[in-house]
């Protein structure tokens, strides 16, 4: 039985580390020219300030803040004011494929599931991420989903991978 907090933390760390796969090699940054080989220039989606404002305005104010200390309620209430700076922040990663380092950092917290508390397998890792990072994820998801639907990338037999019915 583990008594010391450090022992518990080390045990959970060893267990969580054991379930992760080997670190993937970092992807090379994609410039606009490289990505235009996949997207035709006229189809290439751009980050738009209005779209950023819309995503900020839909934030769930009852969710907790991320490790950056930004609360969704504040971001939602200030959507009109911060849409332009966020647009500037989001545009570069979208264009270059490089995500800010702060958005890649997480604090993993063990959350007890069930069973014996001494067993590290009875915990799941939880990692709150930054709210701006989540907004960017939603933007990317929306653009990608729209592109796949318009270009009929996903056939009707694969509808389980999409929201709603395929038309």
Q: Multimeric state of these chains?
A: single chain
The ordered string of helix (H) and strand (E) elements is HHHHHHEEH
Counting DSSP E segments of at least 2 residues, the number of strands comes to: 2
Whole-number count of domains: 1
Terminal-residue CA separation:
57 Å
Strand order, largest beta sheet: 1-2
User: Sheet bearing the most strands, described?
Assistant: 2 strands, antiparallel
From the alpha carbons, calculate the radius of gyration and give it in angstroms.
20 Å
Specify the number of helices: 7
What is the mean pLDDT?
75
Helicity range of the residues?
40-55%
Shape: globular
- Pairing-aware structural class of the strands and helices? mainly alpha
Summed up, what is this model?
It contains 7 helices and 2 strands. The chain has helices at residues 5-19, 32-35, 49-57, 72-77, 79-96, 101-104, 131-150, and strands at residues 109-112, 123-126.
Provide a descriptive summary of the structure in words.
The protein is mainly alpha-helical. Helix 3 crosses helix 5 and helix 3 crosses helix 7. The longest helix is centred in the C-terminal third of the chain and has 20 residues. About 5% of the residues have low confidence.
Summarize the helices and strands and which ones pair or pack:
Layout: H1 5-19, H2 32-35, H3 49-57, H4 72-77, H5 79-96, H6 101-104, E1 109-112, E2 123-126, H7 131-150
Antiparallel strand pairs: 1-2
Helix pairs in contact: 3-5, 3-7
Protein traits:
Mitochondrial enolase superfamily member 1; 46% helix; 167 residues; two-stranded antiparallel sheet; mainly alpha; globular
């Amino acid at each position: 039985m583990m008594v010391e907090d450090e022992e518990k933390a080390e045990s959970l760390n060893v267990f969580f580390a054991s379930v992760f796969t080997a670190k993937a090699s970092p992807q090379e940054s994609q410039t606009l020219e490289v990505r235009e080989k996949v997207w035709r220039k006229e189809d290439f989606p751009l980050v738009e300030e209005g779209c950023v404002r819309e995503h900020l305005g839909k934030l769930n104010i009852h969710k907790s803040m991320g490790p950056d200390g930004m609360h969704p309620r504040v971001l939602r209430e200030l959507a009109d004011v911060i849409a332009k700076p966020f647009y500037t922040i989001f545009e570069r990663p979208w264009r270059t494929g490089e995500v800010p380092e702060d958005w890649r950092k997480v604090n993993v917290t063990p959350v007890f599931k069930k069973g014996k508390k001494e067993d590290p397998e009875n915990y799941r890792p939880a990692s709150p991420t930054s709210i701006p990072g989540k907004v960017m994820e939603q933007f990317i998801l929306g653009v990608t989903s729209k592109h796949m639907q318009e270009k009929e990338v996903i056939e009707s037999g694969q509808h389980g991978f999409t929201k709603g019915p395929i038309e």
